[in-house]
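Technical appendix A lists one of the benchmark inputs used to test multi-chain prediction within the project. The record comprises three sequence entries:
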Amino acid sequence: MPLSRSAALLLLMGAAGSTACAQAIFAPRASALGAYAALVQDVRGFTANPAGLTGMKDWDIYTTTYTTTGTGGGGFVFSGFGLGKRFLGFNSLAVQYTPGTTLDVVKRATFRIAGLSLATDTLINYDEPLAVGYAARVSDRLSLGIQARMQTEKVSNPQYTLEAINDSLSTILPVQQTYQRDVWFADLAVSWKPADDVSLSALGRSLARITSRGIPSGYDQYALPWTRSLELGAAWSPVQSIRVSAAGSTAKRGALGAEWNPLADLSVRCGLYGDGTLSPFLDAVGVGIGYRYLFFEADASYVRFTSEANRGGTVASASFDPSRIDDLGMSPYAGDRASFSIRAILGNVRETPVRIEGVQLAGGVYPSAFQAMAYRPVGRVRVRNTSNRPVAARAAIFVDRLMDRPTLSQPVSIQPGETADVPLTAVFNDRVKDIPAVTIRDATVTVSAAIEGDYDDEAQARLVIHGRNDWDGTPESLRYFVTPDDPEVIRTSREIMLAAKDSLSGVPSELGQLRRAKLLCDAFAGRLVYVSDPKHLTEFVQYSPETLRSRAGDCTDMTVCFSSLLSSIGISTAFVDVVPPKAPEKAHMFLLFDTGVSPQYGDHVSSNPKRYILRKSKSGRETIWLPLETTAITRGFEEAWTEGAQQYFDDVELGLGLASGWVRIVDVY
Amino acid sequence: MKTALMVAAVLVAAQAWAGEIVVQALRGDVSVRHGVTEVWAKVAVGDVLRPDDTMKTGKKGSAVILVPSPQAGSAGARKVTLPAEVIVDMSDVRDLTQEELMLKLTMEKVRASSYQWKSDELQMPSADVVHGADRSSTQVLSASDPSTGVLELNGAHVLYNNGFFATCALKGMEVFRLYPPLGKEFGNRLLVAEALEKAHLRGEALNEYGTIARLDGITPEQELLVHSRIESLRK
Amino acid sequence: MKKLPVISAALVFACMFGCQKPSPLTVEPPGGTTPGSLEVTVLSNPDTNIAVNSVDSSGVLPADQTQYSGLFLVNTVKYDNGHGVLNVAYASAYFGDRSRPLIVNGKTLGYWGVDLMPISAYPMKIGGIAMTRVPYKIHIGTRDTTFGSMYLAVFAGLQPNLPLAWDDEDPDPTFSSSQFRDTTQPPADLRVLAPAGGSVLSRTKQVDLRWTGGGPIRIVISTYNTLTGKTRPVLQLMPDVNTGSAVIEPSVLALLPRVRYYVFTFIIANRSDRLLGQQQQDRTLVQAASVYNSYVQIQ
């Protein structure tokens, strides 16, 4: 239980220490603290304050065992178990079965029947086996509770009758008479938190009673008393790890308790019980510890009475007075007790303010563009805020092996009851580049509204990850195949530049880029072969090193390769994607590269303005770009340039393709 | 000879009527550059010219071409005379539809503006290997020979005179880009502005007149003329 | 749900942990009484035809009396009916001859009381006091019939622990009929503190008994006919140890008939049982007893 929540949930239910209902001592946490009703926040010992049940999260299960350490003790007794559930948000219901809350009394008989080996003792049994509680949260600071507790009294008394055998002789016939009476008590409770660290409460105990008629009036001496009382309590948390509580009742009982959390999961408790009718006032002392692990909570406690009189398991007849037993657990005859319990919280233990309503992932992941996935959303998740407060929701996506850790999205603010689409970006690791062919992988999408990193909902979505060479056909995506910083590309281009170093000297700087481009292209003339797509019908693109090694490729491969080579020596390039509207199957792509030459020097590039294009480069300056038909590079730069220029003129100038949109120019940045 | 000429003329007319540009008459130095080639080639009467061809006339050259035109009525073709010292692209000798004109103008604007390719992705760190400017060379380039630009502007005048106002304006703008000094001359820019006006592109014409008004070295008379044009356009 | 096996194991563990039943609280009988230290015996009614002394005066149960041929009693008897305590001390000697029954209408009503004196010239003495021979009377119908003799002596009181000798002072011990010599030790003086005579007791509540006087004590509860004065013993209670107190629980009182008047007869008796007579087959009871009768009502 987070400490902040412990402090926030200090609910004060009045419990007078030893008049805390017997079932309260059923809970080690309760018995250790003494003034416990203030601190009821779950199914443990809820009969001390049923309004505290609103502290439950979902399912709450609890079981206890104890042993008495007095002279009558020995062995562990199953004390009982409790079960609680929160439902419809602000309602809670709990039931407690406590067969261990029992007092068996053997009233030894003074006599024996001559000639009969019969037990003549009177057996009296008091039980409090059942309690049912219901609580409702009226507001954040106010809760109401009601509970019903069951008590049974059983008297088993051997009776004898004289049976005449003849005129002079009679015999004794034993008859075992057992009488039982069931009593139900009703309690009402209210708890109120005036401040975050203070809680107050009041409990009206045994306000009403329903009893069955089972025990003749002759046994009234064994009846337990019916005492209505008002119990008040208070708890305060001076610091987050400490809680102190106090309680008092109109039955002249009181208690003080304290709980300290030296560690987040560890609790140390102590309590003092007082009885105004006794002298001295102090009736008992309790100590205990609690430990929490995951969704389990284990508690232990020890209660020691200051006076051992009548607590050794045997009392004198004159000292036995059932009318003093208003609490079976803490009766005047109960011995020192050590208790242990285990509690488990099941179900939704956290508030879940958000829910995933749907996940939509993009067409798939292209490993060539995997770096873009870190910035461009790979999909989105629709999240609904199911709480009554605005939340900041973050989504995360994780694909095993291909990601080192889930990628968190930016927080998205969602108002109560509303939905929002949270974009998902994915940071893949280098393994994604090794995927050879299309595969389908599970992507786990989580969403959380808290920073701790726990997610509130989880959805599985299928994520298609394409092969590393797969291309979706768009020039924008083709850019990601361009790898100017690939070592092989750099080495190749530098080798060529180095070999042509001499021819480059003396070239005006304005024409330098043009010259280098020409040299690069001519270097591959004759050494590259144009082939159609090697494996697939469409959209298989080789990376530049692959093209360089295989020395073959289709138009796309060539375009990519030369774009990489040109970029590696600092020349900007762009793809020209042509998709003739009347013949889309004749879609084609070629390359533009930036010569860096200003338009006023156009004559130095070509006397025919149709051979070049004026467009702005990345620097914002208008320069001369040359189109290259990369598949013709094998025939040399000039051929490639001429073909590219012709195509460009026909498609863009004459066909108005660029303006119409069936020609697109995509810069490779 | 006459017969041959007539037959040729008929043939030419027929071809022009069929939607092709035909060389009807030639005189002096006339050459044609095909497509994106750099070479000026000889041309003969009756040659069919393609839209990607460019015709140049020398100092004493001239040519008459038959251009398909829907306005030419049943003849289906129009005569366009190219005087001396002009360069005309065959692709310009035609009427642009309004749509074509708008598209071309859009392209111009795209080129002229500080337009950056729109991207909805974050700009990734560039993978380019950036080289420093090569300072090894000491050679300085000379600007392109403006005479070519002048010839092209003359061609633009031809277009204007023959009613191809749209292509005239576009050609003018293109020339100004390649030959910036030519774009600073009042007369040249006025041609473009008037062509835009004639092409019913009022807004573009206004922009152009505005640009003219801000030219360096403009005389008061020229300025007055520009302003009056602006005023009349605004009405 | 991965948590389920863990929960189940935890719960099972917790339940297994507690297999014991809690130890009961034992409430010990009051007054330091050892539990079960009072033996309750239902008394059989003997053949009521045979004349017997009432237990409240003799301190001997009628059933016992029919077993003995001779009764030699020295009793201090107190009668407490709430209006005062009547104190009587007496000795009586009776020896019934079994060979001479009194049969009326086929019923044996008694045995001839042997006159011990004709046989012996010496009078029967008790504690040195000569006993008076008196007729032995048997009640038949509305009349008493004399059937032999018995001997009686009345004392002012008896001193406890002072032995009394039955002795006919016949110097000739060979005389068979009076071969009776015995010494009896009077018991401690018995005084009953509860229930006091005249008390009204409740059947549903326990009855506390308290007395002074040590020695083997018995309490006989008898019905009491206020018209005829006759008593009929119902229950005998015998504490294992005379602690001066005892408790009669309601379940014991439930055994008593639903009549109103009872007498609680407390008897501390020193008894001895002897064989006497010609054939040495007749049993004789020699008793010295303190008897205290408390006449009460039980409602």
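Chains B and C do not touch (no CB pair under 8 Å). The first strand of chain B starts at residue 21 and ends at 27. Comparable benchmark entries are summarised in Table A2.
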